[in-house]
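Now for one specimen:
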Amino acid sequence: MTRPSLYDRIAALPRPEPGKLMTPPAPLIAFFVIMGRKARALKQSALADLARVSLSTLERIERGETVSAEALERVTAALGMPADYFTAPRLPRPHGEMVEDFSREPSNPVLIKVAPLRNQAQLRALTACETLLMVPSGDEDSTVEAMRSLAEWIDFLAFVLNEHKIFKDRKPSRDRRAAYRSVLDHVAALQARGFVVLAGVTTRSRAGGGGESVAFFSITTKAVDPSGLARRSIIIDLDQLARNGVRPLLDR
């Protein structure tokens, strides 16, 4: 007899009872663990090592089998989620609300090519943009603080590189090389603390027509995204993020 696929088992799950506390069923946990692992470009063995569980335990989780709460919480934490995300009982979300979330498409999805921020050429291209968008991965205070501190350094560099355009009586600054080095030293310090800083340039449409250049920065931690340094593209919804974070880089 052929064993039902994971998707068939999920489709066959009964609807949760409204108002009753419950933990997610094992097949649903398996789906999210598999998707989370693949989104981070991790092999099963790599995730098992990060979570400090055996490979056979992770394989059981991904087959939709029951494992100990401790092992499951280790895997969940290794994926950058709260450790008790799958073990703490919670009220189920209404079915209609979940369907609406899954069916909602981004209004303006953009694929941005990114790379670890490491050199002067990248900074030159980024500070030539008209607007700035920084996206921290997660709401941890340390990540938000890292994002804000980097934004201050990018603003400083943009001013140094463009002050002769703002103040017509000034010549281009002689301190450009030192400014570049200061920003790169700051990025190196963030990396030493376990942060991953990715950057790229994209464009977005203006309300009145045409487009504007956007300097994009993503800040996360190696704990949240172990393969972050190998990432070369990120998909974001520019319309959604524009309401929260796109701002002029410099008034030229």
Remarks:
- DSSP finds ten helices and seven strands in the chain.
